[in-house]
Amino acid sequence: MKERILMLGGAMAQIPAIKRAKEMGLYVITCDYLPDNPGHKFSDEYKNISTIEQEEVLEYAAKKGIDGIIAYASDPSARTCAYISDKLGLAGSSYESVRRLFRKDLFREFQRKEGFNFPYFNVVTNLEEMREIEDKIVFPCMVKPVDSSGSKGVTKVNNHAELDKAFQAAISYSHCGRVIIEEFIPSPYCQLHGDGVVANGKLQFIALGDQRFLNTVPIGTSLPSQIDSDFMEKVNMEVARFIERSGFDCGGVNVEVRVTGGGQIYIIEIGPRTGGNYVPQLMQLATGEDEVTAVLQLAMGTESKIRMPGQIKCCFQYIIGSGKNGKFQRLYVDQYIQDKIEKIYIHKQPGDYVGTYQNSNGVVGVALIKFSDPNEMEEDIKNIGNYIQVIVDEEKR
User: Fold this and answer.
1) What is the pLDDT of residues 168-226, one digit of tens each?
2) How many separate domains does the chain show?
3) Are 218 and 319 in contact (CB under 8 A)?
4) What is the DSSP string of 201-221?
5) Of 153, 263, 289, 325, which has the fewest Cβ atoms less than 10 A away?
6) Distance from C-alpha of 43 to C-alpha of 26, rounded to nearest angstrom
7) 104-114 and 95-102 helices cross at what angle (nearest 10)?
8) What is the domain-level CATH number for residue 10?
9) Does 384 map to a domain?
10) pTM
């Protein structure tokens, strides 16, 4: 009998992992609350259960006799994955370590306790509590739900007048009703972003590049980073030190770091799962290392062969969004950039509604682009909006 893996979710970005698991000879079961998700067409079996319903998923997993479980590219599923691996004695990281990484308030408390650099922060549950600490807030600051993902409810706030609206946006996305207001860490560099793979509590692989933003919403990550490679090694060591202290034992991690002009390293987030929007595919394109296979092997309790990258090729993950609301017509791709695109994933069909890109709900697709050198890459990234455009029938007012 084939070994069985339960994959929490069947969205577009999870299809590469579903297909790879099948290629590895695994019997793949997918589950989530969206039976029309495209990934379910590639699995051996599908069950209609929300991936955040821990007890229901546990009952089903036990019934199916699974040998492994993974929350690939899914923040909400990560805690369920850890809960089930704990309960069934499967490979994975402990529920407490995953919860500590997932919840932004617990993450900051851990940084403070363990002596890592951290942004000054306060946690509030209502406007009255925010009023009590309002005089302590230094602008600009970041206002975030403590337990959401994909930039949902995240706002950079520049003054007191913007606080109430930012709080309301954040609280609307928080499942536990908690909002974190934290210091914005200025940096002369791009924010660092990428994926890592952890085995036996040690960082086995990591590649961080320069994350690009439209306001607070990421539009892509380019590798290699413009930060000096010697200093990047210090960043990687700090992430490795955090992982070892955190108790996170194995699996993929999605990492965000900011470096100040004075060289101080601030770990902004370490998500306890592989990155979304095809970050693992970006990792493989840039480094040659196969993150997808590695995290599947670890989920099944076998050794991963992934290693720290050597030479990193110039690549960019471009998250495609619309600047207008309307019905999706098509994606315009200029021939100039088409020749450099290694892979393009389109999530929308003609006639689908698309909204202005404000968080992960507005992603139309992702392009993975390869360049010959850093200068060419930087110039093309500056003009990427001219080369790739979402064409919509605009909403009539």
Assistant:
1) 999 999 999 999 999 999 999 999 999 999 999 999 999 999 999 988 889 999 999 99
2) 3
3) yes
4) TEEEEEEEEEEEEETTEEEEE
5) 263
6) 10
7) 100
8) 3.40.50.20
9) yes
10) 0.95
